[in-house]
Amino acid sequence: MIKARLLLIFFSILCILHMPISATAEIAEQIKIQEVISPKGIKAWLVEDHTLPILTMNFGLEAGSRYDQNGKEGTEKLFLSMLIEGAGPYNTEQFDAVLQDKAINLSFNSSEDYLVGMFRTTIEHKKEALQVLKEVLYHPRFGQEEFNKVKSRYLAHLPNLRKRPEFIANKALDNVVFGSHPYHRDESGSETSIKRITLEDIKNFGKQNLTRDRLMVGVCGAITARELAVLLDDVFGELPIENPHKEKFQPAQLNIDGSLQIIESAHPQSTVVFSQKGLPITDKNFRKVQVLLQILGDGLPSRLLQEIRVKRGLIYTLSLGSQNYQLADLISGQMASDNAHVAEAIKVLKEEWAKIRDKGITSQELEDAKTNLIGGYPLNFTSSGSISGVLQSYLLYGFDKDYIVRREKEIRSLNLEEVNAFAKEFFKPEGLTFVVVGKPQDLTPLKGHQ
Hints:
By secondary structure, the chain is α+β, with helices and mostly antiparallel strands. Helices cover 45% and strands 18% of the residues. The chain has two domains: 30-237, CATH 3.30.830.10; 260-438, CATH 3.30.830.10. It has helices at 2-15, 23-30, 75-83, 92-101, 126-138, 144-162, 165-178, 191-196, 199-209, 225-236, 286-298, 303-310, 342-359, 363-376, 384-397, 403-412, 416-426, and strands spanning 33-37, 43-48, 54-61, 105-110, 115-122, 216-221, 260-264, 269-277, 315-324, 329-338, 433-438. The protein has a six-stranded mixed sheet with strand order 1-2-6-3-5-4. A five-stranded mixed sheet has the order 7-11-8-10-9, sandwiched between helices. Strand 4 (105-110) and strand 5 (115-122) form a beta hairpin. Helix 3 (75-83) crosses helix 9 and helix 11 packs across helix 14 (363-376). It is globular and about 60 Å long. The chain starts with a helix and ends in a 12-residue tail after the last strand.
């Protein structure tokens, strides 16, 4: 039962240091994952629970912004907006009304690689809700009037997005790191590219990219495996199996060259973004990366926060993490600093990057990082929506059903010697690539060494 399971999950979090058995093993026992394959071969993971009359489904397709045409960046974003502007017999107002009347939650999100749909309904309205979803997938309105409205609304919003310092910095860093690879392109589009996009482009994007060959579905709620197999074919079975003419992309050749670019901007503080090469989530050494990032800057407390903010007061915010695309992997971070202090903040960051490479971590840091990574993991399973989202993302990564338990075992098995040996090879302070937006004092641009 979901309520009982959620209580057990929170109990696991609170008691993780005292439990004789694994917290994630407890979760895996309470949240049993079933693999469902429909007659047409559509694959889904299901956590079945009938405590509440609710069905939640997340579905992902390989239809990200990298499939936008050159010069028409932003097509996928407009496509997603158009999906909820009416479908089948419903115009925009009628579509919104039926979602509200039938308690249907339907939304879409995207990245450079994937389009993700999020669907939730009550069992009472399941039949009507699934019909609405099918209308969206197969009979979106895509009328010229709706398109003009969506496009105008998007263009009105775009300038505010593009003038944000963090947006400017990240796009400039993408241009450096990804070069000519599609990942360097602006997925939100520019005023020029958005104006070029036609309604026909929107229709073609759907025809070319909504296919079953990379469809992965995560489901949680009041439905059996047998019922789900029928549902999968009913909802998704008429999508084309594949598009043989769909563009194929090669892995990105990363240009991590140690450069530092300054983009002048009249702000009282500077925004700093930086990257080095990372590892795929499926790499055998990825657990070591997770532990090291927890210690360096992804956890609380962390070395970078302690040295740059607490001891020296040089920054306002800092974030650090693994940035994993389908065709590239980075370690990326961001910080905000007063213009007068940004040069010193970058200097200390590089020193800490070199320190963890040269001197490694302590046994206490390792144990604390393990505890944080294991103890925080149950928070991914605290609602039907979060569960279905996790299931869908794990399918996209190619994980198996034992991943939940295996993840903890892999983290617990790490020893200090092997983590420190890995850190010596992994961290590249000389290759850290920076973009700074602001008016930083005493900071000089650096050319890359490649």
